[in-house]
Amino acid sequence: MHKRILVIDDDSSVRDAFARALSNGPYEVAQTASGTNGADAALSSDFDLVFLDLDPADMDGVDVLRRIRGAKPDLPVYIVTEFHRKQFDRLVGARAEGLLFELIRKPLREAQIAVVAAGALSRTDHEYRDARM
């Protein structure tokens, strides 16, 4: 059975890197550049994992996360960012709101992407939720 992964990033080379990294695994990968489309996809489909750029096209990544968490609090979400100082404050604010997420820093090698996905998908929903608390 394939695990479904959603990649939300406005940079096509990043989306392509995720697709290549995950192509050899038991994964079905969907991609979008738009935060709005990504949030809609996450809410309307059964994904097992989301990789979310902090600055996707047309919408703040924290707002995308907020929408996802409102309907799917246990869906594993990894925010992918270059992690500049201005982004740090946004991430601290998201944590203060109680929004759960993991953080990985760009640039990523394809091997890192595959390891993160395998690790995230090996956890049960319960283990993911407990690890965040």
Radius of gyration: 13 Å
Uncertain stretches of 5 or more adjacent residues:
125-129
Number of domains: 1
- Class of secondary structure makeup: alpha/beta
Q: What is the number of strand segments?
A: 5
The helix fraction, in percent, is 40-55%
Please explain how this structure is put together.
By secondary structure, the protein is α/β, with parallel strands linked by helices. It has one domain (3-132): Response regulator (Rossmann fold). The protein has helices spanning 12-22, 35-44, 61-71, 85-96, 110-122, 125-132; strands spanning 3-8, 27-32, 49-53, 77-81, 102-105. The protein has a five-stranded parallel sheet with strand order 2-1-3-4-5, with helices on both faces. The termini are far apart. The model is unreliable at 125-129 (pLDDT under 50).
Blueprint (SSEs and pairs):
Layout: E1 3-8, H1 12-22, E2 27-32, H2 35-44, E3 49-53, H3 61-71, E4 77-81, H4 85-96, E5 102-105, H5 110-122, H6 125-132
Parallel strand pairs: 1-2, 1-3, 3-4, 4-5
Quick summary:
The protein has helices at 12-22, 35-44, 61-71, 85-96, 110-122, 125-132; strands spanning 3-8, 27-32, 49-53, 77-81, 102-105. 29% of the residues are buried. By secondary structure, the protein is of the alpha/beta class.
Task: Please supply descriptive tags for the structure shown above.
single chain; 133 residues; alpha/beta; Rossmann fold; 5-stranded parallel β-sheet; 6 helices; 5 strands; 20% strand
